[in-house]
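Example 3.
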Amino acid sequence: MIRLDKMLSELGVCTRSEAKKLARAGRILVNGVPEKSADRKIDELQDEVLVDDQAVSYEPFVYYLLNKPAGVVSASSSEDYRTVIDLIPEQRRGLFPVGRLDKDTEGLLLITNDGALAHALLAPGRHVDKEYEVQYEHPLSPADIAVLQKGMKVQDEVFQPAVYLPVRETTCRLILHEGRYHEIKRMFEALGNRVVHLKRIRMKNLTLDESLAPGECRLLTEAELKALREPVRQPLPAEPSSRSGHNPEENQ
Ligand code: URA
């Protein structure tokens, strides 16, 4: 048995004082019931602990880097569609995708059973980079690029500034720090444009392994995992294979 706040701090989810606040805010569930008291005793083997809906446990963790293909959903289970979990060879209980990509979006998706790491990567305010390669219908004007870089308001929703890196006339890279629903598609729609292909190529310092065909996955290396656990640093976009036209420095 272990105290809830001690367990969460040992697993790196949060500090003990943060655990008290999370508990008071009703963000910690123990066996499906909100637990308001962070000093409650937990049975590590029996009790199911969720922080912001992510499972937290001492189970051995696994970490897969998946090149998500189009046509599968970013969910642990679905009645109607194949899920990203169906593409993982080891059917271990508790695996889930870290964040969501749209059904038609491809690219990097981390699959794990490590709720603490997922929380550290996804929690609001962590500002973890997510870098995408975006192909769109019409070339962007300098004014469009400025809007992407400054951030925009779409139907009362504010989209934070993106880092814009040109690649080709109708392809760019965008680095975002949030993970809003259809974020990039809605930003382009607001510009009167349309995304025709979307691929995530980086999350924090984990880059898509281009040797993985869509639908293939592999375990993370020790070095990748260590880097993923490091505190957030400034964006380090991977070099696009070809960039033409603008100087990326001018557009950031
Ligand atoms: N933005 C989108 O519009 N879709 C995704 O899948 C990811 C980011």
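Helices lie at 4-10, 16-24, 115-122, 142-150, 183-190, 222-229, 248-251. The CA atoms of residues 117 and 229 lie 7 Å apart.
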